Amino acid sequence: MRVRPLPMHPLLRGLATALCILLIAAGLATWRQLPPAPLPADAPPDVFSAYRAFLFLERMVGDGIPHPNGSPQNDIVRERILKAFREMGYAPEVQEAMVDRRGRPFTVRNVMARLPGTFAANGDAARSRLPGPAVLLMSHYDSVPDGPGASDAGVSVAVILEVARLLRNATPPRNDVIFLITDGEEYGLLGALAFVTGHPWVKDTGVVVNLEARGTSGLSLMFETGDRTAWLAGRMVDSLHRPAANSLMAAVYRTMPNNTDLTVFLRAGYTGYNFAFIGDHQHYHTSSDDLAHVDLRSFQHQGENALALVRTLAESDLSSLPEAREAVWFDFQGSFLVWWPLPLTLPLGLLALALSVWLMLRLRRREALSVGGALIGIGQSLLLAGVAFGAAWLFARLARTLGWIVGRNAAAPAAVVSGFWLTALLGTLLAVWLLSRWSRKPRFGGLVWGSSSLWTLLALIATLLFPQGSYLLLVPALVATMTGLVATGIPPNISTLDDTLLRATLLTLFLTACLWLPLEFLFYQALGLAPAWLTAARPALVSVLAAPVLGFRNG
Ligand SMILES: [Zn+2]
C-alpha cells in the first residue's frame, strides 16, 4: 500500500482553528483575572465599597511610616484603629500579652471588637449563659520594619473596619462576629499566638476568616483552609460572587512551610479560610508597599469576599460543624464554584473510564476505530504529549539562553508563557504530520479516542494520588468522553461522524483551556516559571486534546 503523507494545508487549517480556540480562552482568562472594579463611595450602603474603605486605610497608614511591633508608630496606628471602632459604636478592647519567641520576649497588643449576635441572646446559649460559636474575622496591623505595610495588611484591616461598619448598620446576625486585628504577625504570628493561648474569646470561636497579602494586586484568592473542607466549600458556594479558589492551591499550600495567623488557629484545631492577593510581589515587605501601590480592585475583591463570607457564616449553624469531610473544589473562570465531596473523586474517575470504554465500543460499531486502532491511539497520544513537551522544553532552554527568562521570572511573562503554549502546539502539529508520513493516515477516530483516553487514564491516576488536584484532568476527561458519546449518537444523514467528532473535540479543547489557562496566572504569581518541566508539561498535555483538531483531514 502506498503511504501518502497528509498535505500541509489541512494541518495549517487545523493549527489556525486550535490557535483561535486557545486565544479566545486566553482572552477570557486574562479578562477574568482582573478583580472587580472598585465601587464608589456613594454605592448602596449595604455593599462593600473600596472607596469608602480606603478612607480607613488613609487614616491608618496614610503617613507612610513603618509600624512594626513595639515601635512608637505601632502605638499610633493601634490608637487610630481603636478610634475607628469606637466611632462606629463598638467597645473595642486591647489584649496585651508577653510572647516568648526563640528566647526573646515580645509585648503584643491585639485589637478586638465584638458584634453580638441574636443567637446568644435568644437561643439555648442564653439559657446556659454561654455565647454561641462566633465567626472570627482577622488580619494584622503591624508592618515589617522596612515598609509602611499598606497592602500587607493595611488593606485587610481597612476591609475589617468597613465590614464591621456594614454589619453594625444592618439587622444583627445570628452568631456573634469577633473582629481580631493582631499585632506582631511579621515577627512570627505573635499576636495570634497570644489570642489562641490566652484570650477567653478563643473558646467562643467557631470558624476563622483570615485576610492577608503577599503582594499588592491581583485577585483575592481563597488559598488555604482548615479541615472540614466539604462544609467550608458549601459555604463558599453560597456566598462568593467572584470566587478565585481551588483545592489544588489549598493542597499545595498545605505542603509549604509558609505561615500566616491562620496557621496558629489551625494548629489549635480550629477551621477556617485564608484569603490573600499575591500579584506584584516585588513590593511585598518593601518601602514601596505604600498607598500609591494599593490596587483598589484587589481591595474591592478582598472586601466583597470577606463581607459575603462573614454574612453567610454569621447566619450558619456553627454549634455542630459536620464531621471532618473533605472536598474538591474549583472556580470556573471566576464565575462559579464547583465542588464535590472528596470520596466521590475515585468513582468519578471510574465513571470516566467506563464512558471511555463505551466510547471505544460506539466508535467500533460506527467503524471509526478497531481494537488495535484504540491501542495505537493511546500510543500516539503519548508520543504527541512527549513531542509537545520536548518542544516546550526546548523553548524554555532557548528563552533562558536569550535572557527572556531570568531566575524564575520573565521580563514579559505573558509573551514567554504564550511561547510555551505555542511551541507545545507546534510540537504536536509536527508529530501529527510525522505520524501521517510514517503510517497510514492516522484514523480520525483513533486520534479522538486516543487523546480522550490518555486524559482519562491520567485522571484516574490523579484521583488515586492527588485527588484535590485531579479535577484538572477529571473534568476534561468527562467532557471529552461525554461529548464523544453524543457525537457518535448523531445519525450520519444529519452529519458525518468525523464532523460531529470534530465539534466534540473543539468543545472539549475550549472548556479545558478555560479551566487550565487561568492557572497560568496563578502559577506565575505563586511560583514564577519554576519548575520549568511543570511549565512545559501543562501546554503539552492540553495540546494532546488539540491533536484531533490538528489532524482533521478536511482538505
Ligand atoms: Zn501579612
Radius of gyration: 27 Å
Fraction of residues in β-strands:
5-15%
pLDDT < 50 stretches: none
Task: Identify the bound ligands.
Answer: zinc ion
Q: Find the count of extended strands (DSSP E, 2+ residues).
A: 11
Distance between the termini: 21 Å
What is the topology, as strand order, of the major beta sheet?
1-2-4-3-5-7-6
Structural class: alpha/beta
- The tally of helices reads 18
Shape: elongated
Please give a structural write-up.
- The chain is an alpha/beta fold and 555 residues long.
- Helices cover 55% and strands 13% of the residues.
- The protein contains 18 helices and eleven strands.
- It has a seven-stranded mixed β-sheet with strand order 1-2-4-3-5-7-6, sandwiched between helices.
- α7 packs parallel to α10, α14 (413-438) crosses α18 (532-550) and α16 (471-488) packs antiparallel against α17 (497-527).
- The chain starts with 7 loop residues before the first helix and ends in a 5-residue tail after the last helix.
